[in-house]
Design a protein that fits this description.
Oligomer: single chain
Shape: globular
Largest sheet: 7 strands, mixed
Mean pLDDT: 96
Distance between the termini: 31 Å
Low-confidence stretches: none
Strand content: 25-35%
Structural class: alpha+beta
Number of strands: 7
Length: 159
């Protein structure tokens, strides 16, 4: 029997905890694939204010284990297109990785209206996470499995 995780929409009062979760995950999990300079540049975007700003233009979700937020993820339009969406900011605390939290977040995002209306969903995947998305049914955009100039691997799923 797996652990129980509650997935719910982000609330403004979650901003500090979500910011801490993302920053800890970037510095712990992503540091093996990215330079410290790259990580710290990303960290600047995910202060509490940055998290609230992102939640303003996406449907942002959090994964809770008891009272603690242990993961997050968002879905939003892909460049204002009605028939394409994109997944963003999917992070799971390092100590919860490999325990099904990421799967639950993806399941919730794939039930969101932005997913259901889309014919194509893109993920700007980190080098760290692209194998996880492949397991979740996403493929490499144009067959390209290497990072682009932003050091991201573009992945997609068609519906």
């Amino acid at each position: 029997m797996g652990e129980l995780y509650c997935i719910r929409r982000f609330r403004i009062e979650d901003a500090d905890e979500v910011s801490s979760l993302i920053i800890k995950t970037l510095r712990t999990s992503n540091s093996k694939d990215y330079s410290q300079e790259y990580i710290e540049n990303d960290v600047k975007m995910f202060d509490p204010e940055g998290v609230v700003k992102r939640a303003g233009w996406t449907h942002f979700y959090v994964a809770c284990h008891g009272d603690a937020i242990v993961g997050c993820g968002a879905i939003g339009p892909y460049w204002d297109k009605e028939d394409e969406s994109s997944l963003f900011n999917i992070f799971v605390l390092p100590e919860y990785q490999g325990r099904g939290v990421g799967n639950k977040i993806i399941e919730a995002l794939e039930q969101d209206e932005y997913f259901l209306r889309a014919k194509r969903i893109e993920i700007p995947a980190s080098i760290t996470a692209h194998r996880f998305y492949k397991k979740m049914g996403y493929t490499y955009k144009n067959g390209i499995e290497t990072p682009d100039e932003e050091q991201l691997i573009r992945m997609e799923k068609f519906r």
